[in-house]
Amino acid sequence: MTTKPAILVVDDEQVIRDSLSKWFREDGYTVDAAENAAEALRQMQAQKWDIILLDIKMPGMDGMELQQRIKEIDPTGTIIFITAHATVDTAVQALKAGAYDYVTKPVDPDYLSHLVTNALKQRSLANENVKLKEQISEFSKADDIVGESPQIQKVFELIQTVARTDTTVMIRGESGTGKEIIARAIHSNSERRYFPIVAVNCGGLAEGILESELFGHERGAFTGAQYRRKGKLELADGGTLFLDEVGNIDAKTQMDLLRAIETKQFTRVGGNENIKVDFRVICATNKDLEKAVAEGTFREDLYYRLNVFSIFIPPLRERKGDIPQLVNYFVQKYSRSMNKSISGVASEAMDTLVRYNWPGNVRELENAIERAMVVGRPPKIQLQDLPFQLTEKNHIFPAGSLAAAEKAHIAVVLEQNRWNISRSAEILQIDRVTLYNKIEKFGLKKP
Amino acid sequence: MPAIHILNGSIIESEKLGRLARTVENVFGVATNVVQSTISIDRAFDQSRGQYNSTAILAILVNQPVRQNEKNILVVDEDLYIPVLTFVFGEAQLNGVAAIVSTHRLQNQFYGLPHDDTLMMDRLQKEIVHELGHTFGLYHCRQFECVMRSSTYVEEIDLKKAEPCHTCSALLKQAA
Known about the structure:
- The complex is a heterodimer of chains A (447) and B (176).
- Helix content of chain A is 47%, strand content 14%.
- Chain A is of the alpha/beta class and 447 residues long.
- In chain A, helix 2 (37-46) packs parallel to helix 3 (63-73).
- Chain A has helices at residues 14-25, 37-46, 63-73, 88-96, 109-139, 150-163, 179-188, 207-215, 232-235, 251-263, 289-295, 300-306, 323-337, 347-355, 361-375, 402-416, 421-428, 432-442, and strands spanning 6-10, 30-34, 51-55, 78-83, 101-104, 169-173, 197-201, 216-217, 229-230, 240-244, 265-266, 275-276, 280-285, 309-313, 344-345, 380-381.
- In chain A, the strands form five sheets. Chain A has a five-stranded parallel sheet, sandwiched between helices. In chain A, strands 7-10-13-6-14 form a five-stranded parallel sheet. A two-stranded antiparallel sheet of chain A has the order 8-9.
- The longest helix of chain A has 31 residues, at 109-139.
- Chain B has one domain (3-175): Collagenase (Catalytic Domain).
- Chain B contains five helices and eight strands, in the order βαβββαββββααα.
- In chain B, the strands form two sheets. Chain B has a five-stranded mixed sheet with strand order 2-1-5-8-7, with helices on both faces. A three-stranded mixed sheet of chain B has the order 3-4-6.
- Chain B is globular and about 45 Å long.
- Classes of the chains: A alpha/beta (447), B alpha/beta (176).
- Chains A and B meet through helix 1 and helix 5 of A and loops of B.
């Protein structure tokens, strides 16, 4: 059942109060009346009205002043002035002060009905807008950031500090630490949250394609460009542009991007039109950009433009205290999406999860839990449900020679890193050539 | 015994109004008759506007002696207004005993069109039922064809029917 809209009529003439009250009651509205400003203000302390019809000329406090007082008590009330003597000055003054509209007596009945109906519609849209914004804020809460360790708490603080500003943010951290989630958290806590966040993975696109992705292209700009296409910069207008793996951008696109970030203007590929955009830049990288600048592969000016406020996300192995909470979070998430009644992880399995080094960070942990949720049975995930390479067995070194232990350790690291030679060599703290030599020496084979 | 009295203060022949009374009886289920009005509405005249204050006329009507469960609706030819509005077709006492309807703006001649007595009587019938509906406690209805839909232009009166919609009929039964 919907509540009837409520109207307050404030007019010093009883005949006007009575006729307006009667007119609107026949339309099913709840109508109250006040004969002067003091009475209206007194009534407003106890109740709120959707529409307030105000007479401008009243003894004591006039309608204009009353409007200001009403706005102080209830800023959402819709005020319509009804007066016998309309002047342009008073009309302008009333509308400037926030009145919805202004009519002169006697008013055409059809006009009055439409005026009130439209004011109510607008009010209902405004209320709906507020509710939807609240819902968006609720949905866009960064609930994927889990953890109570001092390191992750520091990240939360930095997000809160920088979100409300329009500063460019550089998020650094190893692969899988959740850089995009942090970027989305900054966006959803910023003033730009009702506009889009547009993510571009700069590492996954070839040179020409990245340029076209970022800036868009005109029809016929290159072979296959059959239609004009908007770029990510245009799509991010009003919102946030998230440049992931920013360290992988080629030299030409670096220059174009720098110009676009500095001037907030760019042209589409194959076009001449200058397009103005308003966006905030958040970028992420797992590369050593300082080294890339020193080597000349990343423009120094772009580096300084991007690296205004830096957030470092620690690798999971440096915040192991967060692992149980993350594990439980992912168990709950997947038990809902897979509709499985698994409530947690057995203590032996949890110990293993906490001990593991997690080279792939939170992403790897999430994948491990997702897999375990698929194979596991209620009520809890067991040790054997975890991916093979995480289990205790792989960490038990064979008794005997140092070489046997070295071989077993190298095998485990290669397995954990899916035979990624660079990453395994980095973890083992040896160079890639040495690792290749040892693989050959121990006769290790990629499965 | 419940009754509705159509007080004829217009130049329309009472016989013609008698035919409208049958529709009123059907809608409200109350015996309806037409009587010549003896009520003077002169003091409701506003010199500056050249119109009659319908609220003032309604006040006169409400003070007329009526028996229990009886209602009066006065039909006049004069142009009516309520102080805040430019004009009204009629006015009623919500959940009350009295209503008033004017033929002034129901006639085609008012809009520079040829006289059409049938159309005028059709409009008058709808307005009589509409205002009496208010006296039975009905509010304005959003149903497009319902007689209780608010009409601020004469064309809107032409669009609706002379009967209340299902919802308003049900409300009427509850009120009875």
